[in-house]
Structures are given as C-alpha cells and as structure tokens.
Design a protein that fits this description.
The protein is globular, with a radius of gyration of 23 Å. Strand 4 and strand 5 form a beta hairpin. It has helices spanning 15-26, 43-46, 67-72, 82-95, 185-197, 221-229, 231-240, 259-272, 288-305, 309-315, 332-335, 382-385, 397-400, 436-457, 466-481, 511-523, and strands at residues 3-11, 31-34, 102-103, 108-114, 119-124, 129-137, 159-162, 177-181, 200-205, 211-213, 327-329, 341-345, 351-354, 358-361, 364-367, 370-373, 388-390, 421-423, 461-464, 529-532. Helix 1 runs parallel beside helix 14, helix 9 packs antiparallel against helix 10 (309-315) and helix 14 (436-457) runs parallel beside helix 16. It has 537 residues and is an alpha/beta fold. The protein has two domains: 4-144 and 378-536, FAD/NAD(P)-binding domain (3-Layer(bba) Sandwich), CATH 3.50.50.60; 147-207 and 325-375, 3-Layer(bba) Sandwich (FAD/NAD(P)-binding domain). Strands 1, 2, 3, 4, 5, 6, 17 and 18 form an eight-stranded mixed β-sheet that branches. Bound molecules: ligand NA7. Ligand NA7 binds at residues 142, 148, 163, 181-187, 204, 206-207, 325, 346, 374-377, 491, 496.
C-alpha cells in the first residue's frame, strides 16, 4: 500500500481543524487534513437551513490569533448568518493558503495507534492510509446529525431534510404543507422563516423551549470601524471571560433583588436580547428558587406574545431556565399567531408513524409535502464515534467510553491509552458552554504548545495518565452536580438520543478558569501526562 508519512493528521476543516492546520504548518510540521465535505466550514458547511445563524454576537465569533485577519473582516449584523460565517472561514482558509493542504470529500474511517512504532495509522474512505505521530480531531461536538427512528420514514413520498445536512441549492417551500419536528435552536431559527413560505406549517414539539429575542440589527459603518480599534479588548474578553465573549457574571444573586428591581433588570436583558438574561445574575444555574423566578419571567413573556392561550400553554417550558442550551430567536413565538401555523404537542399525542403523505400522531394525520427534522445531534461523542479510533492494545474509544458515565478525558483534550491523540472541543472541555471560537483558539494553542515543547525536549510520546483523567472526570461531574444543568434532559446530558446513557461530559467552570488550569498543567511540565522518549521503553 502507498502510505504517506507525516507529523500530524487533522480531521475536520471547521473552525478548529483550520486553525490547528495553520499552526502545525507555521511550526514547519508536515500535515494531512481530511474533511468529509467538499469545502471548509465544518458545521457551517452543513447547517444551511433557512434562518441559520449563530447565537454568539458576530464580533466575538471569529479568530483573534491574527490581528490582520480580525481587522480586514467586517461582519454585517449583530448575529452572523450561516452564509457569512462560511464566507469568513473560506476567507481565512484562502488567506493562509490552507485549502491545498486539505483533502476534501474524504472521511476518516479508522485511526489506530501502533504501539511498536508509536505512530498512528489513519485510514480514509477512499482507501488511503497515512502514518503520523500526532492524531488530532477537529470534528466538532454537535455535528453527528440525529434523525429519529420513526417507523415509515422510507415510505414518505415528499422530500425530507435534516437541518444539519441541508441541501446546497435553495429549498423552496412555497405553497407546500411543511412539517418541522424539533424545537431546539435549529427549529426555533427555521420555523419563522419556513412559515413565511409554506402554505401550512405543522410544528411537532416534544419539549417546549425558552427563547429570548435576538434583537438583531445591521452594524453601522461607524460601529464596524470602532470594532477594529477594539481588537485588544475583544481578544482579552474572549480569552479571559467565563464564556468567551463580553459577558461576565456580576455579584448579584437572583433573590438579592426585590421583585420590582428583578423585573426591571430582566426586562432590560429581554430588550437587549440574546444572552443578556443568562448573565444578569450569578446564581441562575445553581439556585432553584432564583432560577424559577427568571423562568417565570420568560414564561410570562411567552403567554403575552402568543394569542391563543392553549397554544401558549403548550409552548411554555417548565424546566430550569438556561439548562438546555439558551436559544435566541427572531419572531419565534409570534409565528404561532399566524393562521397557517399549527403546534402539535407530541408528548400529548405521540408520533406513531410517517405515512406516504404525512405524519400520523395518536390524534390523527397531518398531511405534508415536506418534512424537516430539526432533531439535533448525537452531541459530545457522536462525531468521534463515527470514526473507529483505536488506542493501545486495539482498544476502541467507543468501548472505552461505553456509556455516558464512562466518558473520561484529561482536560477534555486527551484520554489515557490514546497517546499523541488530541481532541479539539472534546468531551469534558467547557467549549459547548460558550462562544466556540474562543474555546477553539485556546485548545489549538495549548495542543500546539504541548507538541512543540515535546518536540523540543525530544519527547516522542505524550499520554494522559489514568489517575489524572479519573480525577478530571470526577471534578467535571462534581461541578456539574452543583448546578441545575443535570436536572434537565438535553443534548448536554445525552438524553436526546435514544439508548444513550446519561452523563454530563462538560466542564462547567467556565472558559477563563479552564484556561488557567491548562496553563498550570503546562507550567508544571505537563502534570498528569506521561511523557517519554521511545528509548525509555
Ligand atoms: P437540539 O437543541 O438538540 O434540538 C433538537 C430538538 O428536536 C429538540 O426540541 C428535541 O426535543 C427534538 N427531538 C429530538 N428527537 C425527537 C423526536 N424523536 N421526536 C420529536 N422531537 C425530537 O438541536 P438543534 O439542532 O436545534 O441545536 C443544536 C445546537 O446547535 C444548539 O444547542 C446550539 O448550540 C447550536 P427534546 O428537547 O430532546 O425533547
């Protein structure tokens, strides 16, 4: 077999894979990068559904490693839309001439560590094999699409789509009866836009969600100029804050305020839009009574917006606010006031099957020309498990992390028995609880430092120690258990995927503190990692 030998293989060409590839190449390392799609972008390549946009504010949703890149790019509005993010990532990849170093349309099927050589062997779908020292995954943590196993889908005579695998050509719903299953971020963003076209829209909701108006607006030319002058501040906020953008928790607890003052603050957050409410109080995610007060504010808003009381009741969530990923919308609840939009509560009347012509629930059939699954992803581990990753003694990652509770990593970056493998935005890192590009830059920079330090010191193998990862996992779990996150089913816990064991493989301590921990590990000569030269074996 014709096998290439390189220093590092990177899987994925989204935000994380692109930056990792750039840094490796800057360091003079030989690389291969593989990407399943025929272009860069990662989740932003695939998530092209109507209304797709990011819920981080644009000026934070970019890299800051290059001041020049930051200054030459201008976002058009407060929240970046999918086409603009994709343009940005293409611009970055072109600027740094990364595309010639990426093999597109190619899935990595298998990666196995050969202990006798301390090398990874990476096999692709096209039959190519590459041998490398470092195996780095930039596969995202919410990128393995979940299409629910509803009987009859194969019989459906209309078109069906998953929001995370949207066709490239525009899908025109004009004059069609459309069904949307799922009301997470993707459903909530796409429902108002689909409703503008469809003749009739039926929304199949399993769990109602809190959502806050985005209050989106175009950036003025003056603001765009000002942002370029604020590079240092924005970079610092992204690196040091708790969630990788401008927000910091203040010193106020929910119950510190009188009901009137609390209403005033929450109303202010509601008017500003986006994630403001989430950061108004510092104990929102730890204090049940406080959380209920904030939840009740949003519940009342839903009932004010939605005209029909029965529909409003069905749209009103009863879980703790903020414990599912906070959603930001444009006209979501207002859409249910349109005469051609119907809400179907599938907890009350479950979907029984999909027929040739629609969706059948226990209460009857909804005739449909098109069906959209906005049913999310097998989060955290799904995209890693799509590859057959094997460490020492042919141990598969899937077997090592057999169920949710068994996910074990050290810092979310590495896992014992899988030497020289690094995961960008891996399970048990804090990345999904904030602004991803900020988490990604930190991960890539730490991994690059680690590789360069090792190369300089002549260390050929670096592997998380079992003890360190047991401790890190226990720490992550303990911290999660002190919050309300674990009291709500979500893709964070794995509860959205049938048969997946529940856990909470996320570090909830925040980006800033996590960065400090990672830096300390490096300062202590990679404490918790076993590093050696092959000769020592
Ligand atoms: P999410 O947030 O996981 O939302 C998926 C939605 O689909 C959610 O409402 C689910 O209900 C629903 N769902 C999942 N399976 C089913 C079945 N079988 N029947 C009915 N409804 C179902 O995914 P998104 O794509 O919206 O967003 C993912 C992330 O991307 C988001 O958090 C942002 O970070 C960006 P459930 O709540 O599980 O009862």
């Amino acid at each position: 077999m014709n096998r290439q030998d390189v220093d590092a293989v990177v899987v994925g060409a989204g935000f994380s894979g692109l930056y990792m590839l750039y840094r490796l190449r800057e360091a003079g390392m030989t690389t291969r990068a593989f990407e399943a799609a025929d272009g860069v972008g990662g989740v932003w390549y695939w998530n092209r559904y109507p209304g797709a946009r990011c819920d981080s504010e644009s000026i934070y949703y970019n890299y800051t490693f290059s001041k020049e890149l930051f200054e030459e790019w201008s976002w058009s509005s407060r929240y970046p839309e999918q086409p603009e993010i994709l343009d940005y990532l293409n611009h970055m990849a072109d600027k740094f001439e990364l595309k010639p170093h990426i093999t597109f349309n190619t899935k990595v099927m298998k990666a196995s560590f050969h202990e006798d050589e301390d090398r990874w062997y990476v096999d692709t779908e096209s039959g190519e094999q590459v041998r490398c020292k470092y195996f780095i995954t930039g596969v995202g943590c919410i990128s393995a699409a979940n299409v629910p196993d509803i009987p009859g889908l194969d019989r459906f005579e209309g078109e069906w789509y998953h929001t995370g695998h949207w066709p490239h050509e525009k899908v025109d719903f004009t004059g069609e009866r459309v069904g949307v299953v799922g009301t997470g971020s993707s459903g909530i963003q796409s429902i108002p836009v689909i409703a503008e076209e469809a003749e009739h829209l039926s929304v199949f909701q399993r769990t109602p969600q809190y959502s806050i108006p985005a209050n989106n607006y175009p950036y003025s030319e003056e603001f765009k100029k000002q942002v370029k002058n604020d590079y240092d501040t924005i970079r610092r906020q992204m690196r040091e804050s708790v969630a990788g953008l401008k927000f910091e928790y203040g010193d106020r607890c929910v119950l510190d305020d009188s009901p009137e003052k609390r209403y005033e603050r929450l109303q202010d957050g509601w008017d500003k839009g986006g994630w403001h409410i989430l950061f108004t109080y510092n104990d929102l995610l730890t204090n049940e009574e406080g959380n209920e007060k904030v939840a009740s504010f949003v519940q009342d808003k839903i009932k004010e917006i939605v005209d029909d009381p029965d529909t409003a009741e069905k749209l009103t969530p009863d879980h703790y606010y903020g414990t599912k990923r906070a959603i930001v919308d444009t006209n979501y609840f207002e859409t249910y006031n349109l005469p051609h939009v119907t809400l179907v509560d599938v907890k009350e009347s479950p979907i029984q099957e999909i027929t040739e012509t629609g969706v059948k629930t226990s209460e009857g059939e909804y005739p449909l020309d098109a069906l959209v699954f906005a049913t999310g992803f097998d989060g955290m581990t799904g995209s890693l498990f799509k590859m057959d990753i094997r460490g020492r003694r042919d141990l598969s990652l899937k077997d090592k992390w057999k169920d949710g509770e068994a996910v074990r990593t050290y810092l979310g970056l590495a896992t014992a028995e899988f030497p020289n493998m690094f995961m960008l935005t891996g399970p048990e890192s804090p990345s999904v609880l904030g602004n991803m590009p900020a988490a990604i830059e930190q991960h890539v920079e730490w991994v690059m430092d680690c590789i360069e330090d090792s190369e300089e010191e002549g260390v050929s193998v670096i592997e998380a120690e079992e003890e360190a990862e047991v401790e890190w996992s226990a720490h992550c779990r303990e911290m999660a258990e002190s919050t309300l996150y674990i009291k709500t089913d979500s893709w964070y816990t794995g509860a959205n995927i049938e048969g997946k064991a529940k856990g909470f493989p996320i570090y909830v301590g925040g980006y800033g503190p996590y960065r400090t921990i990672c830096d300390e590990v490096r300062e202590k000569n990679y404490e918790g990692f076993h590093r050696y030269q092959r000769e020592e074996l």
